[in-house]
Amino acid sequence: MQAVDYILVGQGLAGSALAIQLLNQRRKILVIDQPDNNTSSRVAAGLFNPVTGKKMVKTWMADTLFPYLHNFYSQAEQTTGEKFFFPMPLYRPFLSVEEQNEWMARSADPLYAGYIQEIFSSNAFRYVNDPFGGLLLKQCGYLSTTRYIGAVRKWIEKEGYISTEHFDEQHLRIQQDHVVYKDFQAAKIIFCNGVHNSSWFHWLPINALKGETILIQSAFEENIIVNRGVYIVPGMKSGEWRIGATYNFQDKNPGITPEAKTELEEKFKDLMDISYQCVSQEWGFRPTTPDRRPILGSHPEQPSVIIFNGLGTKGVSLAPYFSDVLIRWMENGTPLNKLVDIERYKSVYWTSPK
Ligand SMILES: Cc1cc2nc3c(=O)[nH]c(=O)nc-3n(C[C@H](O)[C@H](O)[C@H](O)COP(=O)(O)OP(=O)(O)OC[C@H]3O[C@@H](n4cnc5c(N)ncnc54)[C@H](O)[C@@H]3O)c2cc1C
Q1: Which label site among 103, 110, 121, 302 has the fewest CB atoms less than 10 Å from its CB?
Q2: Which Pfam families does this chain map to (predicted)?
C-alpha cells in the first residue's frame, strides 16, 4: 500500500491549482484524471478580466484574486519551465459619448484607478469598431489552459503520482481517519471533477452551463484582447483568435450547434470590421452554482471527503486563490469564507445519506 497525503480526483483548473499548491508544500499526492477534450478547462479561452458585465463593475474579490493569480501562474511557469500565462491589456470599445464620459469620471475613483491603463476618446485600434474610443484595462490576459494543464501534469508525474483512469467509486473505502483507493491510502480525498460531480456530492446544486466558442483566422495583429458582446482572445497559432462564448442553461446535449456559431459570428461582426475564416468550433459545460461562488469543504458525514468545485465562468481567476484557502482550512483549520463554504448548501439541500 502506497501512502500519500491527498488523493485528487480531476485535473482541470481546480485540480491543477490544488496539485501545484500541495506539491509546493511538499505534500505527497495522487491525482486521478481521465482527460477529455470537452472538459470545461480544456475548451476555456482562459480569459481573466477584473472588470466585467454589462455594467462593467469590478468582479467579486478582484483586489485579492488578481494580484494572487498573476503571482501564482508566473511562479507555475518557473516551476514547470513552460510558457502558458499571457498578461495583456483588454480593450472595450465605448458605445456612446455618455459611456466615454462615465469612464473619464470613474478613472479618478481609487476603486478603479488600478485597473485602467488608458481611456481613448476616438478610434484607437485598426479593424475594431470603436468610433467613441474605448477603455483599455490592465491586470487582464489569458491562460493557455491546455498548455497549463499539460505542464502541470508533467510536473505531477515528476513529483507525485498520476493515474490516467476513470475514478471508480466502487474502489473507494472510507475509514475513520483515512481513505483507501486501490493501492493508495491518503488522509483525505478531494473531488475536483467539475460537472461530473462525485456521488458523494450529488446533492449539491452544481449546474452545467453550456458554452461554445469558435476559432478564427484573421489578419488582426494587435497585442490586446477585445471584449464587447464577445471576447476575442489570441489562439495558440499566429493569426488565430478564439471568439466566445455562448451561455446556454437549456441545452444539455454534448456537441456544437449552428445557432451558437451564428450568434458568435454576428457579435464578432458588430465588434470588428475584418475578414476571417472559421477554423473550428468547441463546446463544454461550466460547473456553476446558483450564487456564482465556488464550493469548498467536506461531506456532511465524512470529514475525509472534500470538494473543490463550482468555479463557474471564472475558473482561471478563482482556482489559484481558493486552492490556497482550501489547503489552509484542511491543514490549519483556518475558517472558510462563508460565501464559499459548503455549509451554506447543507441546510437547504442535504437530506439523506449517500
Ligand atoms: C466555452 C467555455 C469558455 C470558458 N472560458 C473561460 C474563460 O475565458 N475564463 C475562465 O476563467 N473560465 C472560462 N470557462 C470556465 C472554466 O472553464 C471553468 O471555470 C473551469 O474550467 C472549471 O474547472 P474544473 O477543474 O472545476 O472542472 P473541469 O474542467 O470539468 O475539470 C474536471 C476534470 O476532472 C476529470 N474527471 C471528472 N470526473 C472524473 C472521474 N470520475 N474520473 C477521472 N477524472 C474525472 C475531467 O476529465 C476533467 O479533467 C469557460 C468554460 C467554457 C465551457
Answers
A1: 110
A2: DAO
Is 80 near ligand 1, meaning CB less than 6 Å away?
no
Cell output for 159: 513529483
- If you measure from the C-alpha of residue 28 to the centroid of ligand 1, how many angstroms do you get, rounded to a whole number? 24
Q: In Å, how far are 49, 136, 169, 277, 340 from 308, measured between CA atoms?
A: 22, 33, 17, 39, 10
- Please report, for the chain, the start and end positions of each structural domain, with discontinuous segments joined by +: 2-44+146-206+291-349, 90-137, 207-288
| Contact status, residue 116 vs residue 107, Cβ threshold 8 Å | yes
Strand segments, DSSP code E, in 10-160 are 29-33, 47-48, 51-52, 57-58, 85-87, 90-93, 116-120, 134-137, 141-143
Domain 2-44+146-206+291-349 has CATH 3.50.50.60: yes
- Residue 144 CB–ligand 1 contact under 6 Å: no
CATH class, domain 207-288, is alpha beta
Report which protein residue has its CA nearest ligand 1's atom 19: 315
Q: Please, are residues 312 and 249 in contact by the beta-carbon 8 Å criterion?
A: no
Q: HSE of 252 in the Cβ direction (CA atoms, 13 Å)? A: 3
Q: What is the residue with the minimal CA distance to atom 5 of ligand 1?
A: 44
Helix (H, G, I), strand (E, B) or coil at 24: helix
pLDDT, tens only, 79-125: 999 999 999 999 999 999 999 999 998 888 888 889 999 999 999 99
